[in-house]
Amino acid sequence: MTIVDISDISIELFITVMVFLLIIAPLVSLGVLRLFQGKKRIGFSLIGGSIATYLVFQLVVNLLD
Known about the structure:
Blueprint: H1 11-36, H2 40-64
Helix pairs in contact: 1-2
C-alpha cells in the first residue's frame, strides 16, 4: 500500500476541484438518467453542460498553477 502525499496541493486548488466536482458529477448522472428515461435532448444537453463545465475547470486550474 502506498501513501499519497497531498501536502503540495494548495487550498485554492482543493476548493476549486471540490466545487467543480459538485457541479460536473450531478450533471453527468442526471444526463445519463434522462437518456435512460428516453428524454434524449435534455440528456445530451446535460452531458454537454458537464463537458463545458469541465473545459471551464481546466482553464481555471491552469490559471491557478
